[in-house]
Amino acid sequence: MSNCVALLGWSLPAIESVEKLDKPYVVVSFSDFENYANEHDIPFVSWDFNHWDETQNSLQLAEKLKAFDVGYAVPLFEETVEWAGALNSILRDDPRLMNRSYLFRNKAMMKRKALLAGLRVGLFDEVYNTSQIHQFMDRLNEANLQLEGEEDAWIHLKPFAAAGTVGHKLLRSRSDIQDKVVDKDFPCLVESHLPGKEFSCEAFVHEGEIKFLNITEYVRLGYSNFVPAGPELQEKRPAIKKAMQKLVDSFGIEYGMIHPEWFLTENDELSFGEVACRIPGGHILELVSKSYGFDAIQALILSSDPGTTSEELDEFFPNDTTTDVYHGSLMVYPKRGHITKLEVPKELEEDSYFEEHTLYPPSPHKVSDREGFGNHYGTIFFKGEEPKRMQELLRHYREVDFYV
Predict the structure, then answer these.
(1) Number of H helices, E strands in the chain
(2) Pair 15, 57 in one domain
(3) Would residue 115 count as lying in a domain?
(4) How many domains does the chain have?
(5) DSSP string of 79-133?
(6) What's the CA gap between 190 and 167, in Å, rounded?
(7) pLDDT in tens, 111-168
(8) pLDDT digit string (tens) for 43-66?
């Protein structure tokens, strides 16, 4: 294995995981965390990820990391992906790694690459003003053979580089374009609505080969999911794995973990949504760790290391098709504009599938607008053996008002 890993971003779970590996590491993050790091003997380099320069700044950071004998960098959050690409291109003397990292940070570039690779994607375009969005809707309506009086084709507006659903807007009509779109949204990506069941995959890749593949079932995007996916998706696993390997090959992914989102239609066709190469949201890696019995963050660190051997990874990873225990999570967000207290139903705590929750009693305050699918007020975790029961619980408690 390589001498030292640079963890880009502050994450206590990641720090705990790498320390259990007994592997040299250094955390690179904002100066806000430096005092805590010093107090707890955490190797630390202060860095402002907000000031990006693909040449000068990355060289300065690489120079700072020489003292730690860093062999490779792992991005923990969306904002650190291009920094990891820059550092790894320097450390491995491979400029293409820098360019490849942009595929994960520019959704328009990502879609073009997927299209060239032969992956099924929707119609998409880059737009710079509302007039161009109207023109895009015109082309979609025309392609859908829309008749007068019929609904407009749905459009998804997405920032080029935001994580997950931050800034994502669903535009169902021309009035939505006028009412929801603001100047700061531009430039951005617009794309057609993809039909089908949305799900994600978490694949750990080493030397271009998928070493472990999990399929995560989304119950409600941004709120609830469980691991592994139920039988409906699992029976499509061969086709999903084939599409995943095609994604890995076409994007030139050699090491680390990828988290793509797909859509499966009723006709068993797979459409590519988007892909990330950092820790996914929704507590997915935590659920993976629980269901399969290994540390998924350690897996990220090991699979990102070109020095890890195939034998070490074969010994580390369990069989990715044999677990019979499902773990789910529901992220809770207040439904009211003003809240004063937390109310957890007794029936939840007495349910055999209930594992724990991280909901906290609030002080009375006004609830702020939700950004993407972030800012949740805690998570409820479930564990059980029946995927249908897991789905029912996640759907039911999504409607419960925990904060009143």
Answers:
(1) 15, 18
(2) yes
(3) no
(4) 4
(5) GGHHHHHHHHHHHTT-THHHHHHHHTT-HHHHHHHHHHTT-----EEEESSHHHH
(6) 12
(7) 999 999 999 999 999 999 999 999 999 999 999 999 988 999 999 999 987 766 778 8
(8) 999 999 987 765 558 889 999 999
